[in-house]
């Protein structure tokens, strides 16, 4: 496997230097209290808050667009800096993964004469020819999406499912109890949310039931060992799924199926990450910090966008923690 996607397991003490450095960086993460306070401020107030945080060195202006750019620039800078001390595969798989899957979607759906170079050129060649030392799942995903390219909505669904499958497999390769627990919950939640929303699209007549069942069977195949999927065995249609969903505990915590769905999911992931803060050395220290930073960046970005659109502090505050990895 190419080093860009190889998950290497190393001795804990290999991470001693970067773990010590990250323990300092953890102190710069914004608390939930600060995030809620920022949500009550006008754009000018948010700018002042960011000037007191590590985002200040990336700010080029006090407007919403400049702040949004600075927020993500800070995250990318942290990824790049920490990546100097971590295996390439670890960073690419768990923190740049979305970029690769979005490329697959673009390459399937958008006709282009674009000339590719470097890794992209080799990756696209692998997807089209199968020649190369990339994760086999990439080729499997690309081939299945190619068959559905006349139905972009299905390509999007396939991206979602293959992405979860890839992360679940990669987590297993780390041999880390914490990372495996994180992605087991991640998979449970993503699958549950995916099926619930897709079933609602059927009930609102936006998609056909056969489309739901096609994805449901794919979920059953991909995630046969996932506890909530095991409970769904025997489901034959959307009505049965809804009945099972209502009568069985499909997810390892209580969910109200409304706008709080994503928020509750994010809370459960955060609980796992809190365990990581008690680990002093190891790959888990890096994983925990970067995931918490990812959540922070998504929340601040959401606050800035909401405020720029004139949302009230109550509406913005309710959405804090909705964004997740």
How would you describe the overall organization of this protein?
This protein is an all-alpha fold and 325 residues long. It has one domain. It is 67% helix and 0% strand. Helix 9 (152-174) packs parallel to helix 11 (209-222).
Q: CA-to-CA gap between the ends?
A: 25 Å
Low-confidence stretches: 252-259
Structural class given helices, strands, pairing?
A: mainly alpha
Question: Largest beta sheet, briefly?
Answer: none
In quaternary terms, these chains amount to single chain
Total domain modules: 1
Spell out the helices and strands N to C: HHHHHHHHHHHHHHHH
Number of strands: 0
The radius of gyration is 21 Å
Please give the count of helices: 16
**Percentage of residues in helical conformation:** 55-70%
> What would the principal axes of the Cα set say about the shape?
globular
User: Mean pLDDT, as a whole number?
Assistant: 88
Our estimate of the beta-strand percent is: under 5%
């Amino acid at each position: 496997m190419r080093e860009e996607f190889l998950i290497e397991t190393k001795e804990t003490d290999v991470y001693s230097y970067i773990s010590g450095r990250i323990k300092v960086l953890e102190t710069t993460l914004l608390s939930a209290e600060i995030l809620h306070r920022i949500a009550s401020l006008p754009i000018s107030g948010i700018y002042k808050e960011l000037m007191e945080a590590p985002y200040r060195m990336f700010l080029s202006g006090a407007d919403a667009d400049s702040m949004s750019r600075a927020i993500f620039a800070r995250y990318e800078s942290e990824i790049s800096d920490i990546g100097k001390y971590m295996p390439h595969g670890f960073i690419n798989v768990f923190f740049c993964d979305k970029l690769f899957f979005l490329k697959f979607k673009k390459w399937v759906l958008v006709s282009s004469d674009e000339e590719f170079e470097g890794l992209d050129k080799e990756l696209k060649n692998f997807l089209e020819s199968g020649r190369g030392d990339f994760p086999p799942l990439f080729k499997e995903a690309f081939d299945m999406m190619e068959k559905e390219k006349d139905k972009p909505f299905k390509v999007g669904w396939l991206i979602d499912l293959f992405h979860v499958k890839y992360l679940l497999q990669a987590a297993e390769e780390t041999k880390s109890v914490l990372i495996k627990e994180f992605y087991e919950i991640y998979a449970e939640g993503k699958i549950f949310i995916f099926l619930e929303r897709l079933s609602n699209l059927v009930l609102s007549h936006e998609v056909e039931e056969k489309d739901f069942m096609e994805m449901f069977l794919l979920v059953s195949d991909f995630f046969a060992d996932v506890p909530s999927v095991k409970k769904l065995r025997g489901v034959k249609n959307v009505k049965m799924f809804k009945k099972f969903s209502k009568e069985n505990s499909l997810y390892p915590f209580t969910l109200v199926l409304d706008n709080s769905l994503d928020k509750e999911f994010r809370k459960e992931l955060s609980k796992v990450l809190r365990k990581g803060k008690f680990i002093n050395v190891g790959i888990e220290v890096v994983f925990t910090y970067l995931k918490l930073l990812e959540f922070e960046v998504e929340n601040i970005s959401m606050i800035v966008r909401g405020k720029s659109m004139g949302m009230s502090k109550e509406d913005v505050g309710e959405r804090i923690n909705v964004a997740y990895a």
